[in-house]
Amino acid sequence: MPRLFIGIGLPVAYRQALNPLIKSLSRLTDASVNWSRLDTWHLTLKFLGETDEARIPALKAALAAVDFAPFTLRAGGAGAFPEARRPKVLWLGLAEGGEQAATLAGAIEDGLAAIGIPREKKPFRPHLTLGRIRRPSPGDWSPVLDAAAAHPWPPFTVTRFTLWQSTLTPEGAIHTPLAEFPAR
Question: What does it catalyze (predicted)?
């Protein structure tokens, strides 16, 4: 069964800035971090996980019915899940477009719930994952988070979202777009 998720792809300017940012952040910690890769960096709107292939046509039809207007998105700020003192995930927040991304994620939830896909239990928290810490341990992550938050990000217009297949490999996930859904 394919492993699927729905998200917003990031523009070239973001992907080009990721590797230099990660190099500078990795110098600030000796923790083992799986940093995001520029070829798979995205904003997740809904993770579907392992999905029966027979459901994909219905998924595509439900997603095609999602109505949203283009909106501006810009990364800004940084944080960690579950908390900054003992993080498992380091992320960038959204300085612009967070409310619109949450509205889009809600419309996707509504459309998929209508075809029997369970709703998320946790509220949607728009973020761009920078890295996952392999062995979380207490420490002072403020230099890493402050440096990530200080990086300037340009605004861009979200004009579509994508249904992706994520194939896990020893070298990392490979994301293949299955369908794109444009703004109206």
Answer: a 3'-end 2',3'-cyclophospho-ribonucleotide-RNA + H2O = a 3'-end 2'-phospho-ribonucleotide-RNA + H(+)
- What whole-number distance in Å separates Cα of residue 32 and Cα of residue 17? 21
What tokens does 74 get?
Answer: 């810009």
- Catalytic residue annotation: 42, 127
Per-residue pLDDT tens over the stretch 118-159: 999 999 999 999 999 988 777 789 999 999 999 999 999 999
What is the architecture of the domain spanning 3-182?
Answer: Alpha-Beta Complex (3.90)
- Residue pair 52/141 in contact (Cβ under 8 Å)? The answer is no
> Domain ranges in the chain?
3-182
Q: How does DSSP assign 27-70, residue by residue?
A: TT--S-EEE--TTT-EEEEEEEEE--GGGHHHHHHHHHT-----
CA distance readout (Å), 69 to 88, 103, 107, 132, 160: 34, 11, 12, 32, 9
